[in-house]
Amino acid sequence: MNATEARPDVYSRPAARFAGDGSMEVRASAAAGCRRALWYAATDREITNPPDAAAVTVLETGTALEPVVLRAMARAGWEITPGDPVEPEEVSVEAASNVRVVGHPDATGRMPLLPDAASEEASRIGMLLFGSMPQIRCLGGETVVEVKTRGPEAFRRWKTLGAERSHPEAVAQAAFYTYGKFGEARDAVIATMDTGARRWDIEVVPADRVERALEDACERMAQLGRHLALNGPDPDALPDRDFPSGDWRCRRCPWLTACLPRESPEDPDDATDADETPVTDADARDAIASYDDARTAMKDPGAARRTALDTLKAWMRGRGDKKATLDGRKVSLVETRRFSVDHRRLNEMLDPEDRRRIVTESVSEHVRVT
After folding, report:
1. Are residues 28 and 74 in the same domain?
2. Closest CA to 190 of 26, 329, 347
3. Which helix (H) or strand (E) holds 7?
4. Strand-pair partners of 192
5. 88, 95, 109, 177: most buried, per Cβ within 10 A?
């Protein structure tokens, strides 16, 4: 039996389902998802776009790494109480009169208050295992710890923007767990591991923003509840979609074909610019050949140039000089000053609206050839 198979059935329940009293039960992990997808799940709509083997592997990898992150936090001095893997504690929040959000927190924890010899030793072990250890804001007090695993790009985006902008569904999930566990607003901790670099970090979402995340999520659930009250559990009475068809959550939806059949009008977000010149397969093959030629021409000179500069840098440092003349060439050792931003502290200090004005995000496309 593998690790995933050993997990109890509570982790395999649908994202939403109807209870015996006619109300709807929604999993906390899906509470910020598309309401139409939740309706499909609750009405047992047949899945049209099941995850492929690669997606299942990614999901199972993330599940397997959750206890690794919690153990790493414990080594760093946290007091971690992980959820029971056999009989997990269920928490619930009444998000609307006929919608209940349920879930099973990954863990609760208390942040280390004072550095001591034990935590310093834990840091040395963490350096060996993960390459670096996060700088932890010392607070104390029991909080919900929600563990996530992200690829390198998603991890970098989370670190820069904060979870409320990069992954708001994780904050909503932690908010439901916090209220379900403690019955009040508290700071919540998002602990995330970069699956590429095997490093982890935390983000503390302050209690007032946890409360706001819960209010926003409950409003979405209230809309779903009003739809249920008006239509009953009718599988053909579908709520509106919450995301455009180009959104990643829409593209990964297990009911994508049912929601957006091919005969439906083309979504404007998916439309191709009519003014673009069509590119043939032959054009693409010529482009690949040109790319390979250019890459071959640049590869060796670039490597030789870097090697030469590294040698000159070592030579200049050995002499203790900033400038020198060698074979008629002027050689200078130039210092470049860079400034960094502590995004975690910035994310804790500022609301998402203020951060959005300060830390902006732009999207560009480029081609990678491997």
Report:
1. yes
2. 347
3. none
4. 148, 201
5. 177
Q: What is the dihedral of CA 144, 145, 147, 153, to 10 degrees?
A: 110
pLDDT recorded at residue 274: 44
Residues 260 and 299 in one domain: no
Angle (deg, nearest 10), helices 35-42 and 207-231: 50
Query: Do residue 292 and residue 215 come from a single domain?
Result: no
d(CA 261, CA 370): 33
What is the spatial distance between Cα 182 and Cα 141, in angstroms, rounded to a whole number? Answer: 12
Pair type for strands 323-326 and 199-205 = unpaired
pLDDT tens profile 58-70: 889 888 999 999 9
- The length of the chain is 370
What pLDDT score was predicted for residue 5?
Answer: 47
Query: Which residues are 205's β-sheet partners?
Result: 188
Weakly modelled stretches of the chain, pLDDT under 50 = 1-6, 115-119, 136-138, 263-274
The two structure tokens encoding residue 130:
């993960």
- Give the C-alpha separation, 259 to 254, whole Å: 10
- Domain identity same for 211 and 290: no
- 3-class state of residue 23 by DSSP: coil
Burial class of residue 351 in the structure, from the number of CB atoms within 10 Å of its CB (0-12 exposed, 13-18 middle, 19+ buried): middle
Distance in angstroms (rounded) separating the CA atoms of residues 29 and 186: 19
Q: Are residues 297 and 247 in the same domain?
A: no
**Coil, strand or helix at 298:** helix
- Alpha-carbon distance of 331 to 90, in angstroms, equals 67
Q: Same domain for 303 and 194?
A: no
Q: So what's the pLDDT on residue 8?
A: 52
- Distance, in Å, from the CA atom of 107 to the CA atom of 80, rounded to the nearest integer, reads 7
Contact present, 215 and 221 (Cβ < 8 Å): no
User: Are 168 and 297 in the same domain?
Assistant: no
Quote the number of domains for the chain: 2
Alpha-carbon dihedral sign for residues 33, 35, 41, 46: negative
Residue-number span of the structural domain to which 69 is assigned: 3-268
Asked if residue 349 is part of any domain, the answer here is no
Whole-angstrom distance, CA of residue 123 vs CA of residue 198: 15
